[in-house]
Amino acid sequence: MEQKKRVIALGFFDGVHLGHGALLTRCAQRAAELNAIPAAFTFDAHPSTLIPGKEPVPLLTTPADREGLMERRYGIQEVIVAHYDQKMMTTPWRKFVTGFLLRDHGAVHLVVGHDFHFGYKGEGDPQRLQALCAGLGIGCDVIPKVELEGITVSSTHIRSLISKGDMAGAVRFLGHPHVLTATVQHGKRLGSRLGFPTANLAYPEGLLVPAHGVYVTRAVLENGESFPAVTNVGVRPTVRDGTALTAEPFILDFEGDLYGQQIRLEFYDFLRPERKFDSLEELRAMVLRNADQTRAFFAAHP
Q: Which of 89, 218, 249, 250 has the fewest CB atoms in 10 Å of its CB?
C-alpha cells in the first residue's frame, strides 16, 4: 500500500503559541500545495527531563491539549507524538530525518523554527537540515522568530507571565486562551450548599500552575457546549486546611452532573489573588461578585 505523504512541522510546541502558529500555518499551506497531510511532530515529555541535575521544565500544556490546539486552530490533521527516552535522545540527527521522518512517516516537506535543534547533542540545526533535505529532494522551510510588543514569542516568556498571573498577557502571546483539560473529581460539595456548585479538577503532574487566584474562564464540556466560569486555582484556604492543589470552576448557567467527565478550561483574565475569608458568607458574596465580573468580561469580549 502506498504511504501517505506528509508535510511535517517539527517542534515541542508547548502552549502552541503565535511562534508555533507561524510554523503550523506554513505547514498547512505547503500540505495544500503538495496534496499531502499537514502533520506536526512532538515529544510526550520535554527533553529537559533526561538531563541529569536539571530541574524539569513545567509545561504549559499536556500532549493531548497540544494536539487539540494544533488541530482546532491551525488545521493540523495528524500529530505524531514520540516517546522521549534515552534512545530518542541519542539518535543521530540524519538518522532521525531519513529513518523516522521520511521512511516511517512519508515526509515530503519539513517546517522548522529558526532556533530548532535536534538529534544527538543537538547537532541537527536548521542549516544542516535544509542542506540534507535539498540532497534528499524534499523541501524545508525555516521560519524566522515571531515578535510581539518587541519581545520574541516563546514558551519561556509565556510561562513567566502565567506564573505571575498575567493571563491577559499570556493570551496575547499565545494567540488564544491558556488551556487545561482534566477530569472532574468528587469534592466536598460545599459550593453547592453555598449556592455556587463547582467542579473539582486536579492539576496534571508536570504542568505549570498559574499564580494562585481567581480567573475568568470558559468551561468546554465533552459534548462541545461551553459556558462562562469563575475558576479558583490554588488550595481553597477558606474551606480547607490541606495543601492539595486544584482548579475549581463555578460554571455559570449550567446545571447537571459532571463527575467523571473531562472539562477543558480556557483561561482569559485574572480577577484577584486567592485569599482566606473570615466567613463562608463573605466567600459566597465575593464569588457571586466574580461571577458578575466574568459575565461582564464576555459581554465586552464576545
A: 89
CATH number given to 177-300: 2.40.30.30
Hey, what's the cell of 50? 533526561
**Residues 141, 116 contacting (CB under 8 angstroms):** no
**Considering Cα of 24, then 25, then 31, then 36, what sign does the dihedral take?**
positive
The amino acid at 5:
K
How far is residue 98's CA from residue 100's CA, in Å, rounded to a whole number? 6
Helix, strand, coil % in the chain, rounded to nearest 5: 35, 30, 35
Contact 180, 264 (CB under 8 A): yes
Exposed, middle or buried, 27 (CB in 10 Å: 0-12/13-18/19+)?
buried
- Length of the chain, please? 302
> Which residue type is seen at 24?
L
CA–CA gap between residue 50 and residue 85 (Å, rounded): 7
CB 228: neighbour CB atoms within 10 A? 21
Q: From first to last of the 302 residues of the chain, give the pLDDT tens digit.
A: 567 999 999 999 999 999 999 999 999 999 999 999 999 999 888 877 767 777 888 999 999 999 999 999 999 999 999 988 888 889 999 999 999 999 999 999 999 999 999 988 889 999 999 999 999 999 999 999 999 999 999 999 999 999 999 999 999 999 999 999 999 987 666 555 666 678 999 888 899 999 999 999 999 999 999 999 999 999 875 555 556 788 999 999 998 889 899 999 999 999 999 988 888 889 889 999 999 999 999 999 98
Q: Is 264 helix (H, G, I), strand (E, B) or coil?
A: strand
Residue 86 makes CB contacts below 8 A (sequence gap 6+) with 50
Please give the grid coordinates belonging to residue 1.
500500500
C-alpha cell at 57: 521544565
Q: Which of 3, 78, 74, 18 is nearest to 42 (CA)?
A: 78
In the chain, which segments carry CATH 3.40.50.620? 6-152
Contact 229, 256 (CB under 8 A): no
CATH class of 6-152: alpha beta
